[in-house]
Write a structure and sequence with these properties.
It is a single chain. With 203 residues, this protein is of the alpha+beta class. It contains four helices and ten strands, in the order ααββββββββββαα. The strands form two sheets. A five-stranded mixed β-sheet has the order 2-1-9-8-5, with no helix packed on it. The chain has a five-stranded antiparallel β-sheet with strand order 4-3-6-7-10. A hairpin with a 4-residue loop joins strand 8 and strand 9. Helix 3 packs antiparallel against helix 4. The longest helix has 22 residues. The N and C termini lie far apart (66 Å).
C-alpha cells in the first residue's frame, strides 16, 4: 500500500509541475488589441451594432524586450503636479524601496517596488542628482524603462536642515502627548518623514 501511495504521489507531483510550468511574461507575445472572443460573441447576438471597446482596446502594446542590454536606462519621474524627468537616459537610479535602497541598472529584472521616505539618486556619468521622496512606487520594465511615481518630492539641496530638525522635535512632542489613535498615527508619520529627511541631509 505504501509503495502504491508513493508511486501515485510521484505521478501527481510530476503532473502538477508540468501543468504549472510556463514561460516568463516577457517571453509571451502581447495580447491583441481587441478581444476576439468577445467581438465574435457580440456579433452573434447583436450583428447590427458595432461592438463596444473593451479595456484591452485602450492598452498600448507591450514594449519589445531588446535582444541586448542597452547602455542606458530610461527614467520617467513624475509627481501629481509635475514631471521631473521625462524619457531621461541615465546610467543608474537608486530608489528608496520599503525593502531597502534598490539600485536599478539597464537590463534590470521587471519589478514593482513600493517606495518609502528617502533619497532617489539619479546617476548620469559623474553627476548625481538627489531628490527626497515622501512615498510612491517604482515600476521597472523589461525594456530598461523605469517609471517612478512619487506623492511628493523635492531636490535634496532645497531642504533646510534647521527646519527639518525643528519639525522633528515638534512631531516627536506631538507623538508623546497624543491621546487618540488618529493623533498618534499623524504624529508618527511626521516623525518618520522628518527623521528620513534629517538622515538624508546629515548622511
Amino acid at each position: 500500500m505504501l509503495r502504491q501511495a508513493s508511486r501515485l504521489l510521484a505521478r501527481t507531483t510530476t503532473a502538477t509541475i508540468s501543468r504549472v510550468s510556463r514561460a516568463f511574461s516577457t517571453d509571451v507575445p502581447a495580447p491583441p488589441a481587441q478581444d476576439s472572443n468577445f467581438i465574435e460573441s457580440w456579433k452573434k447576438v447583436i450583428p447590427n451594432l458595432d461592438p463596444p471597446k473593451t479595456p484591452s482596446s485602450f492598452m498600448a502594446p507591450r514594449p519589445a524586450t531588446p535582444s541586448s542590454i542597452p547602455s542606458k536606462i530610461t527614467v520617467n519621474f513624475v509627481l501629481p503636479y509635475a514631471s521631473e524627468l521625462s524619457a531621461k537616459e541615465v546610467d543608474m537610479v537608486i530608489v528608496p524601496a520599503t525593502t531597502g535602497q534598490m539600485g536599478v541598472l539597464p537590463g534590470h529584472v521587471p519589478t514593482i517596488a513600493e517606495l518609502k521616505p528617502g533619497i532617489l539618486s539619479v546617476h548620469e556619468g559623474n553627476d548625481v542628482t538627489k531628490y527626497f521622496l515622501s512615498s510612491g512606487f517604482a515600476l521597472i520594465h523589461a525594456n530598461s524603462v523605469a517609471d517612478i511615481i512619487a506623492v511628493e518630492a523635492v531636490p535634496l539641496d532645497h531642504i533646510d536642515l534647521a527646519l527639518v530638525q525643528k519639525g522633528l522635535a515638534e512631531f516627536t512632542q506631538k507623538l508623546s502627548s497624543a491621546t487618540t489613535d488618529l493623533e498618534k498615527a499623524e504624529a508618527q508619520i511626521g516623525v518618520d518623514v522628518h527623521s528620513a529627511m534629517n538622515s538624508a541631509i546629515t548622511g
